[in-house]
Amino acid sequence: MIWDGSKQIEATKPSSRDNASWFWGAVAMWLGAALLAGCHGDRSVDSSPSVSPTAAASVEPHTGTDPTAGAGDAGGAGGDGRATTGNAAVSRGSWEGPVDRSDVPAVAGSTAATPAPISLSLALTVPETSAALRAEATELMTDLVRQLPQSPDALEVKARMHFLFGENEQAEADWRQALAISPDYGYAHLGIGKAAMRHDRLEEAEQHLVKAMELLPLLEEAALELAQVYTLQGHLERTVSVLQSFVEKKPDAAESWLVLGQSFLALRDYERARQGFARVLELRPDAARAQEGLGRALVRLGQREEAKRLLEAQASARRLTEASNRTPEEAFVNEKKDVARLYVDAGRILVHFQHLDAAELVYRKAILLDPHNMDAWSLFLRLLQQMEKMNEAWVMAGEMCEANPDDATAQLTLALLGARVGELHDPIAAMDRVIELAPQDANAHQTFARLLLENRRDFPRALQLAHRAVELRGSAADHEMYAQTLAVNQQFEKAREELEEAVRLDPDNPLYRGALQQLDAFLQAKSAQ
Question: Using one digit for the tens of pLDDT, what is the confidence trace for 411-427?
Fold first, then answer.
């Protein structure tokens, strides 16, 4: 399966489990030995900026706080990113981003056999017109399907290209061909459902979208499209049922909360509409449609002063939007971003089939079309490291930072890659910049603390950073990292308490229990001296 966004990106350790094992197994080696000998001098024995030799093979961009990220992980993997942004059937939120397909692996047909090597003809230049952009994308996707004819993923990304360009019949034909190869391919059911809805074949759309929800229960796009079908059929209660069920599984699904609030408004359930819109604004404070919806709900609930404030703010935002309506140039920029997302998915397919040179070309093209696409950068840098092009990866990470100077993701990647290849003279300063850009990001704090531990530098600062990660998120991995920093600062009893909390939060992680046992053994040996 290719569309698997659930795997965590690795920074300088393979996983939280490996990180815990590495540290606690080394306590007696470089911390315990000094303590048992009665040495309490300067613990920052190594000022070298290089990363620990136990570092993992790949360093990838960090993509924000993820409560499932493990100790030692720089952050969660960029989401699947697969969304048709040009033909969305459901009312989208004011942030107008693509529907997230993170953490939703597709069920594709068999791709075990590796095809013969392929080459793609793709110029590393930026098309100057929409027509040229579309022609180039069509040629690439057609070539991809021609060379990988049994890949439902290749057909699916080509279908989304056609759907984006308004070529709905070609899109539906490709989705049906993908479904013929893999009958339980959820994204094909989703695509056919969307195409059927556009042609008012609502019963058929419902059948395929229900199937898509069964196969992809965590895919927000599927929930939104099915909700739209029920709304068009006049079944608002079903719309509410689908979306309520979905937000129970994914409480941070802002767009689902928005449509849920709109549905409650239509049903005249103003209190629950208020709750839905309020939740959107917790997640997206600048969501204009949620502000408008909340204002309307508050009017109905008699809270007119608060409603007036919200509606005036929303009207002001709308005037700004209308005053800056897209010029043709701006529309072309957005079209290039849409096509770049398709190229990112094409690159994923090529990597899956081990066509690495072709994938590198496609990722480079995606970055040219949209230098701010962090999924493209993430996958491209991972690929360069897989191809053992570490120095080139570091150089390209620098270009990523130039294109995205205020992006903590980019800065964290540059810091970790630079430390790994020995080209960054002060990764600590780089990490300070990351914290400045992302002061509320638990992963950034956790990664910085680990970097300090690995280089045996500024243990008190590592302690502060790890403690902040616990305050921001408090996952089992955060508590385990905090325990590490407490241990190197000789606060052993508190370290033990934090390990116990990690075990409580993640009782199935045997390495947390092993770490606790190792710490206990160390403390017993220490007390015997």
Answer: 888 888 877 777 656 66
- Burial of residue 469 (CB within 10 Å: 0-12, 13-18, 19+) is buried
The neighbour count for residue 63, using CB atoms within 10 Å, is: 23
Q: Does the residue 492 lie in any domain?
A: yes
Q: Are 184 and 33 in contact (CB under 8 A)?
A: no
CATH assignment at residue 413? 1.25.40.10
Name the residue among 116, 119, 122, 118 with its Cα closest to residue 138: 122
Q: How far is CA 255 from the centre of its chain?
A: 16
Domain of 428 in residue numbering reads as 8-78+367-528
Q: What's the farthest any 2 CA atoms get from each other in the chain?
A: 80
**Cα-Cα-Cα-Cα dihedral of 353, 356, 360, 362, to 10°?**
-30
Element (H, E) at 88: none
Identify the bridge partners of residue 76 per DSSP, sorted by sequence position.
8
Q: Which residue has the tokens 């024995």?
A: 45
Count of structural domains within the chain: 1
Phi, psi of 9 (to 5 degrees): -75, 140
Domain membership flag for residue 313: no
The reply to whether 474 falls in a domain is yes
Classify residue 387: in a domain, yes or no: yes
CB-based contacts of 199-206 (< 8 A; 24+ apart in sequence): 199/168, 202/229, 202/232, 202/233, 205/229, 206/230, 206/233
For residue range 247-299, list pLDDT tens digits in order: 999 999 999 999 999 999 999 999 999 999 999 999 998 888 998 899 999 98
